[in-house]
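As a warm-up, study this chain.
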Amino acid sequence: MTELKLDSLGDGLQVAVIGASGAIGAAMVTLLASSDQVERIYACSRSSAVPAADNIVCLPVDLLDDQSIARAAEQITEPLDMVLVTTGILHEGENLKPEKSIRDFHPDHFARVFAVNITGPSMVAHYFLPKMARNRKNVFAVLTGRVGSIEDNQMGGWYAYRASKAAMNMIIKNLAIETARRNKSSVVVALHPGTVASNLSQPFQAGVPEGQLFTPAYAAEHLLATVDRLTPSDSGYLFAWDGEKIPF
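Now compare it with the structure written out below.
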């Protein structure tokens, strides 16, 4: 693993990772915990199965439970330099699967996907953005994905997932505009991690071209490197793991 460098953010960093028990979230927590620049990581998750280290504080958070998000935010006493939201749902159980056509539409599936992919991260912003540091660079980043780009969509399908990610991109744009009024040094962005070997991508990995299925560690390393390079002029946009700016 390459040594993590966060040159644009400095030392003594306070970081919150939402979804810390997921593939990308856990990889980010592990990488951040190994850095001398990071003083404390708040690992927020429904599960207690998160990486362990002296500088990791585990906080229970369920994105579908507004009060759990509020309680986690209340326990953070130092200004945050980064908040990384790494959660998401594409499929669940035997019934909830990405729609191939309008014949597959189901209101309960749309409600579930939108709750996890939009409402939950938006409520994280509600409670955690006021905890961000002032008068210096800070980063609020949410994993959305290239599939949320309307301009980039050439395949169709995956209706609820695509729509939820596109909607989250709009939330990011709004948050960036509002946050800049309080702190001109803030960076609020959406991130595309690539296709990562995880439970989310598992049913679809067979169709991924050779060399384009990333390990969680590889994705985490490149996403954090991208975040480090971003400036306030990049706030409100969608960036890929390699720094490419993706149109909304």
